[in-house]
């Protein structure tokens, strides 16, 4: 019998990739939670085109917690892709899940591996979510992913890569020789399908990636494949001071330095590697 999975945030950059992969998996039956449609905000055409079951539900405080709990109870596996700006909503979601006989809850992480504590603001906000999950002893799997290729490639003069790039990554940090984990965002959904079907990943922190490569290696490959000169901007010296000038927060500057140091360290999580998708 197919495993019933509820996906929350299935129209975002990460959520959409997970939906597209799991809808093809015969061992998984997915439902997508959506905001109740209105004339100004109808249901996403992406979701309606897939003809999958939808659960219209408002996770905000306007909906009683008991109503949320009842609506979520039929789903043994719940995946959250709510996004960084919705961590307060996710905390309320977790409150609603407390006490339900879940098989597993996958909170919204989908970030690069990094310890908490004034290194990466995104990571610290997610830590609050993880701690709420642990507080209620909810069965979980936390899934981190490598840096997307789509935010790791520098642009070239011809613009031939622009259709693949979400964020220009022509800034080189340090000497550019610290290895990083990279992943094509289109591969994330396939990893999630494997994780959901693997009972051994319950209670684990899993990292998914396609390739280990440093920035110098990325610049070299882009240059070779495009036949163009890659313009690299060395910002390693100026960036912390620019950040200090605009924010006035010295702790964030220290955080940038710590993050750069962390990238030099060996990762010690449980890994799910596989070959990357060729762009």
TrEMBL record:
Ranges for domain NmrA-like: 2-206
A molecular-function term among this protein's GO annotations: oxidoreductase activity
Transmembrane segments: none
Keyword Oxidoreductase: yes
Assigned keywords, A-Z: NADP, Oxidoreductase
Pfam families, A to Z: NmrA
Name under which the protein is recorded: NmrA-like domain-containing protein
């Amino acid at each position: 019998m197919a495993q019933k999975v509820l996906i929350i945030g299935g129209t975002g950059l990460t959520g959409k990739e997970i939906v597209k992969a799991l809808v093809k998996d015969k061992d998984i039956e997915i439902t997508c939670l959506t905001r109740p449609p209105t004339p100004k905000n109808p249901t996403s055409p992406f979701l309606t085109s897939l003809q999958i079951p939808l659960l219209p539900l408002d996770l905000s405080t306007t909906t009683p917690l008991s109503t949320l709990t009842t609506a979520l109870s039929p789903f043994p596996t719940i995946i959250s892709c709510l996004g960084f700006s919705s961590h307060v909503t996710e905390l309320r979601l977790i409150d609603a899940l407390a006490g339900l006989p879940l098989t597993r809850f996958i909170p919204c992480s989908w970030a690069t591996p990094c310890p908490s504590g004034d290194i990466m603001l995104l990571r610290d906000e997610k830590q609050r979510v993880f701690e709420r999950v642990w507080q209620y002893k909810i069965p979980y799997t936390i899934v981190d992913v490598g840096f997307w290729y789509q935010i790791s490639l520098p642009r070239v003069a011809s613009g031939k890569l622009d259709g693949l790039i979400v964020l220009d990554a022509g800034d080189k940090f340090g000497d550019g020789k610290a290895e990083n984990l990279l992943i094509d965002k289109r591969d994330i959904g396939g990893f999630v399908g494997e994780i959901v079907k693997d009972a051994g990943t319950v209670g684990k922190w899993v990292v998914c990636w396609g390739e280990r490569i440093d920035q110098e290696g990325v610049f070299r490959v882009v240059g070779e494949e495009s036949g163009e000169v890659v313009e690299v901007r060395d910002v390693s010296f100026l960036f912390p001071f620019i950040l200090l000038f605009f924010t006035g927060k010295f702790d964030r500057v220290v955080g940038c330095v710590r993050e750069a140091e962390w990238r030099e360290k060996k990762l010690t999580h449980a890994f799910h590697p596989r070959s990357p998708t060729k762009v």
